């Protein structure tokens, strides 16, 4: 039975279409993400972990918060380090803060930014989870690819959404 599910995926610039634009491609991506989260719930998932990066992570967290209104689920924010969002637009910073405000649990995993804090966050999420939802553009490099490989090496069920 799946109890904990986390998510990994790309930031907006790595999408093969314009992220956030009300388009057929973007809406199809969101629907696939929502369907995978619903699937995790159907398998018994009650605790969800978001890595709180721009793009997939925030989309994942917002849908889990929506589900909280009708399902017995919790959201954990695994923040890589303080100020991880300091270079974001004000709109995205507000979005992140609003998710954190509504989360059931917030864990900051490194005291400061360094070259490994994002990977530390990704390992933390996978190590706590029985399922990983991965939104993947096919590039075999970077954090999403690393996290998919790490999850598979740990024999964690990995559900991939191809972009």
Could you explain the architecture of this structure?
The structure is a single chain. Helices cover 42% and strands 20% of the residues. The chain has 163 residues and is of the alpha/beta class. The chain has one domain (4-15, 34-162): Rossmann fold (3-Layer(aba) Sandwich), CATH 3.40.50. A six-stranded parallel beta sheet has the order 4-3-2-1-5-6, sandwiched between helices. α1 packs across α2 (56-67), α2 (56-67) runs parallel beside α3 (90-102) and α4 packs parallel to α5. The model has no long low-confidence stretch (mean pLDDT 96).
Secondary structure blueprint with pairings:
Elements: E1 4-9, H1 24-42, E2 47-50, H2 56-67, E3 74-79, H3 90-102, E4 105-108, H4 117-128, E5 131-136, H5 142-153, E6 157-162
Parallel strand pairs: 1-2, 1-5, 2-3, 3-4, 5-6
Helix pairs in contact: 1-2, 2-3, 4-5
Features:
5 helices, Rossmann fold, 6-stranded parallel β-sheet, alpha/beta, 163 residues
Helix content: 40-55%
Strand fraction equals 15-25%
Order of helices and strands: EHEHEHEHEHE
Number of H- or I-type helical stretches: 5
Name of the CATH first level: Alpha Beta
Radius of gyration: 14 Å
Largest sheet: 6 strands, parallel
Instruction: Walk across the major sheet and give the strand order.
Output: 4-3-2-1-5-6
Uncertain regions spanning at least 5 consecutive residues: none
Number of strands: 6
Principal-axis shape:
globular
**Oligomeric status:** single chain
Distance between the termini: 27 Å
